[in-house]
Specification:
The structure holds two protein chains of two kinds. Chain A is an all-alpha fold. Chain A has helices at residues 5-17, 47-50, 63-95, 109-136, 139-171, 179-200, 204-218, 221-231, 250-282; strands at 241-242, 245-246. Chain A has one domain (66-282).
């Protein structure tokens, strides 16, 4: 994408305003961290975005403005995640009855389903931030996407692992190459590909754009995973929860939903922590970071 | 309590390996992720402090 004249003017101005050069031992990628974000200005760095700059949400496109907000969200989400995990596991293990057909092994559902959902949701969130980053050139969007990827990969791995351990006693096999399992495995590989590609370039901006493309193209896989149990014959059971009804006992469903919200809160907390680390890394040249309490 | 004893709880109707194998690996993954988060933050702040000291 060609830089607008306005943007390059803004950048060179910011560069000359910089207090001094960065440490010679840490070479900064071209253009990285050269714009000093402030709490009042919106540094989205692109003419298209500046047209929207009156809107409140663009304020938080500035890493300096988002950094403290992310910290608050993180703390809140840790609290919610811990509280809901305790409540969810209590209901799931001490209130929910034994399943009539599957016995006790069904209790894997309280982590299997939330992990599988989060693996899909996080991928869509990554695609969303990547699209925003590509469209508006916002640095923070790419950082958000990068912050989500490792947790998404972990969720995909957990859903595959717990699925295998659930499948052995109920289906008689750890693994089958059916649509749901295979498409989830592909999701896991997409995460790995995204992470590898983002890290493969010395120029972080190239890594941002290349990995954003994987995030966007790979998003096609998410609806395939979701609808695979309807589209193809599969060993995997159909959706337990769908709009307008559920096939589960209500205490089981309650425990699963509580655990799902716990997983949400955990993922948000981890992503917020990681995005703050990314801001420290990528914006280390900005003066406001010197005043941030670490 | 729906369990007759803690022994019954841990055995999960004979499926303890599969149930606790799932929860155990999740616990390990979460702990590993938290350790990785801390390490990454430490690295980032160390570099940050060094670069600001040089100024």
């Amino acid at each position: 994408m060609a830089r607008t004249e306005q943007q390059s003017n803004e950048r060179s101005k910011a560069r000359s305003n910089r207090a001094s050069n960065p440490s010679p031992s840490i070479p900064l990628p071209e253009g990285e961290g050269s714009v000093e974000p402030t709490f009042t200005s919106v540094n989205v760095g692109n003419a298209r975005a500046e047209r929207f700059s009156g809107r409140w949400f663009w304020r938080f496109a500035s890493p300096a403005a988002f950094y403290p907000l992310a910290g608050t969200i993180e703390k809140l989400c840790w609290f919610v995640a811990i509280a809901l995990t305790i409540i969810g596991l209590y209901i799931g293990f001490f209130r929910a009855p034994t399943d009539a057909t599957q016995g006790e092994v069904y209790r894997v559902i309280y982590i299997h389903v939330p992990a599988a959902w989060m693996a899909m949701v996080i991928y869509l969130a990554m695609a969303f931030w990547s699209a925003l980053g590509l469209a508006f050139g916002t640095r923070l969007s790419f950082m958000m996407s990068h912050a989500l990827a490792p947790t998404g990969a972990m969720m995909a791995a957990i859903s595959l692992w717990t699925g295998a351990l659930w499948g052995r006693p109920t289906w008689g096999t750890y693994w089958v190459w059916d649509a749901r399992l295979t498409s989830t495995l592909i999701l896991f590989f997409l995460y790995i590909g995204y992470i590898a590609l983002a890290a493969a370039f010395d120029d972080k901006k190239k890594g941002d754009r290349a990995s954003a493309l994987i995030a966007l193209v790979g998003a096609v896989n998410v609806p395939i995973i979701y609808f695979s149990v309807q589209w193809w014959n599969t060993l995997h059971q159909g959706a337990s929860v769908r709009p307008g009804g559920s096939s589960m006992a209500s205490t089981m469903l309650t425990a699963m939903m509580v655990m799902t919200f716990a997983f949400w809160a955990y993922c948000v907390a981890v992503a917020m922590h990681r995005v703050r680390t990314q801001i420290i890394e990528r914006e280390r040249d900005a003066k406001w970071l010197a005043g941030v309490k670490q | 309590m729906i369990w007759e004893s803690w022994g019954a709880f841990w055995s999960m109707g004979g499926r303890g390996f599969f149930v606790w194998g799932s929860y155990g690996v999740l616990a390990i993954a979460v702990i590993a992720e938290l350790i990785a988060l801390r390490a990454a933050r430490k690295r980032a702040t160390k570099t940050l402090n060094e670069s600001h000291h040089d100024h």
